[in-house]
Write a structure and sequence with these properties.
single chain; about 220 residues; five-stranded mixed β-sheet; 5 strands
Length: about 220
């Protein structure tokens, strides 16, 4: 009887599968990326696959669901490694709150030791498309200055191939933005290819390379004339 009174006065909350962050094994084929991020390194995936083979997936994949689809917020390397191992499913933390989704997405990018500029640019686009925010509002949401947002949106100039090459180079954010300021597509592509061919980042020397390329072009035209 005392137990019945206690239950009526202090009813216990039932833990349902709708509880935020509940654990669930989800088929990898059902997972979709919430946002496209950088190109994955084959070497890193193989190394992670070896670790997962020995110790399993130590950190579940954060996933957002609207009841119809499952979109992973981060963890593309873990998913790729499990696919490499031939695994059909992976352990996930499942969330249904859009507020939680956005907080986890921002944290997964902005809390990295050196956030990838293209990831930040994609996040800016996400905030614009999903929430119709201004640059000032996005800056506040991401914890960066409005001027940095204005600089990063210039990264839209890069083609997919240019982004792929740049991600393989050890360029600083400032160097990438300097490249984005080059309005001449032909010159920009030539600078990127030279950086790639020389296998060097040359951070802070973009202007020097641009001058070299333009000087070479002038010399070529003079020779042709």
């Amino acid at each position: 009887m005392l137990d019945n009174i206690k239950y009526r006065m202090f009813p216990q909350k039932k833990m349902s599968k709708e509880t935020e962050g509940y654990l669930r094994q989800i088929d990898i084929d059902k997972l979709e990326p919430l946002m496209i991020r950088r190109e994955l390194s084959e070497k890193d995936i193989i190394k992670l696959a070896d670790s997962i083979c020995k110790s399993g997936v130590l950190f579940p994949i954060p996933v957002f669901t609207d009841g119809k689809t499952y979109k992973y917020i981060s963890g593309s390397r873990r998913i790729a490694a499990c696919m490499l191992l031939g695994r059909k499913n992976i352990i996930c933390h499942v969330y249904t709150s859009s507020e939680t989704r956005d907080k986890l997405l921002i944290a997964s990018i902005m809390h990295e030791k050196t956030p990838n500029p293209f990831d930040i640019y994609s996040l800016i686009c996400y905030c614009q498309d999903k929430h119709m925010l201004t640059y000032a509002e996005i800056a506040q949401k991401l914890g960066i200055t409005p001027s940095r947002v204005n600089e990063l949106v210039k990264l839209e100039k890069f083609s997919f191939e240019e982004r792929r090459i740049i991600n393989r180079l050890n360029l600083t954010e400032d160097a990438i933005i300097e490249l984005a300021k080059l309005n001449d597509n032909e010159t920009r592509n030539a600078v990127i290819m030279r950086l790639y061919e020389e296998n060097t980042s040359k951070n802070g020397k973009i202007h020097k390379i641009v001058r070299q390329i333009r000087t070479e072009r002038i010399a070529e035209r003079s020779n042709c004339a």
